[in-house]
Design a protein that fits this description.
This protein is an alpha+beta fold and about 220 residues long. Helices cover about 35% and strands about 25% of the residues.
Length: about 220
């Protein structure tokens, strides 16, 4: 797993990009209102970032977390959704124009989250999670022992590749849901491998259980 395993699991808000005529402060206020209901590390970063930047506090109702995709609810009577491109597509929104901006952020190792308001794409908030100081050494030691290291993450391909590139990770499986992490373990076993899986989130539970050795990080 990447977030909270290879990285610190303490992401920080880095960018707020308004698409259209919404003010950045309003965009952040909506995003934070929704994320207060979530327990995800990225949610915490958005809430803390909004408070640090003085965005007005609002409350959300009808909160719903969509595993592996994002969150949605109502803020001030308006429908707000925060999530990845898959979530936006499910809502029938075209992310094509916003993708180039999102890709620029992802190439810097940031996670870009789309924000929709009343069925329209209105912005992107980006969050970065620093790599743990001990991670590069840990990967080197695993390689020295002859192990192949695969990163399996729900995060976007570009963000994942930016992190993997810094660490010399052998293979990346990005943009995958919890069940796909388990499917990866099952496939590796069919190919004759022995697998140790390290993760820290509830979304890693199926893969941790399926591996020969499941390593749950103490921060999870």
């Amino acid at each position: 797993d990447k977030t909270g395993t290879l990285t610190m699991g303490k992401p920080k808000l880095t960018d707020v990009v308004a698409l259209g005529d919404i003010a950045e402060t309003d965009l952040l206020s909506l995003a934070a209102a929704l994320e207060r209901g979530s327990e995800h590390p990225l949610a915490e970063a958005i809430v803390e970032g909004a408070e640090a930047r003085g965005a007005p506090r609002q409350e959300a109702t009808d909160f719903d977390a969509v595993t592996g995709k994002g969150v949605q609810g109502r803020v001030g009577g308006r429908a707000v959704a925060l999530g990845n491109a898959a979530m936006m597509r499910e809502m029938g929104l075209d992310t094509a124009q916003a993708e180039s901006k999102a890709d620029t952020l992802r190439a810097e190792g940031k996670t870009a989250v789309f924000v929709a308001l009343d069925g329209a794409l209105v912005g992107i908030v980006a969050v970065a999670d620093p790599i743990k100081d001990s991670t590069a050494q840990a990967i080197r030691e695993l390689h020295a022992q002859g192990l192949r290291v695969i990163m399996a993450t729900g995060d976007n391909e570009r963000t994942a590749q930016a992190v993997a590139g810094k660490l010399g990770i052998d293979e990346v499986r990005a943009g995958i849901l919890p069940e796909a992490k388990k499917d990866l373990i099952d496939q590796l076993r069919r190919d004759g491998h022995k697998i140790a899986m390290a993760g820290d989130g509830v979304n890693d539970a199926p893969a941790l259980a399926a591996a020969d050795v499941g390593i749950a990080m103490g921060t999870g």
